[in-house]
Amino acid sequence: MEHAMEAPFSVQRIDHVVFRVCDLRRSIAFYGAVLGCEVVRQRGDLGLVHLRAGASMIDLVSVDGPLGARGGEAPGQGARNVDHLCLRIEPFDETGIVAHLHRDGLAPLGAAEVNFGAEGDGPSLYFTDPDGNVIELKGPAEAAA
Fold first, then answer.
1. Domain-located, residue 127
2. Which residue pairs from 76-81 have beta carbons closer than 8 angstroms and sit at least 24 positions apart in sequence?
3. Domain range enclosing 119
4. Is 16 within a domain?
5. Is the residue at 144 inside a domain?
6. pTM above 0.85, yes or no
7. Residues 3-28 pLDDT 10s
8. Residue 121: how many CA atoms within 13 Å on its side-chain side?
9. Alpha-carbon span 77 to 10, nearest angstrom
10. In a domain, 2, yes or no
11. What single string gives the DSSP state of each residue in 45-89?
12. Residue 132 belongs to a domain with what CATH number?
C-alpha cells in the first residue's frame, strides 16, 4: 500500500462516529444525560439520530432500522457495534480521491453522495479498510442557498 504520491486531501478532524444501538431512546437519554449531547437531527426513515458532541457528531442507528440492520446482529460479543468512522477532509475532489484509493488497491463503495455531518450537509465517499471497517471521507458543508 505504499506509494510515492501524497493523498489529494488532508484530514482535518473526526467528523462523526456511528454507533449501532439496541434501544435508541435509551441511548439518546444516556448520551444526553451523561455527556451533554443534544439531538440536532433525526431520520426516522433510517433509524438514525444525530447528536452534537462539541465540534463533532455522534450518530446513533437503531439495529432495527435500515442502516443498523446492515451491521448484522445487535451489538454484543459476536456482532459489531461501530458502523463507520467519518473523517473530515479538505479538499473534496471525488475524482482525485477515487484515483488515490485505486492506487492502493481500494475502491469506493459507491459514488459520492451528500450526507449530514458535524458542519451540515456535504459530500462524502465510503470505502473499507483491510479489516472491513467502513471509513467515510467527508468534504465541507454545502453553502446555504
1. yes
2. 80/20, 81/19, 81/20
3. 10-138
4. yes
5. no
6. no
7. 557 899 999 999 999 988 889 999 99
8. 7
9. 35
10. no
11. TTTEEEEEETTEEEEEEETTSHHHHTT-SPSBTTB--EEEEEEEE
12. 3.10.180.10
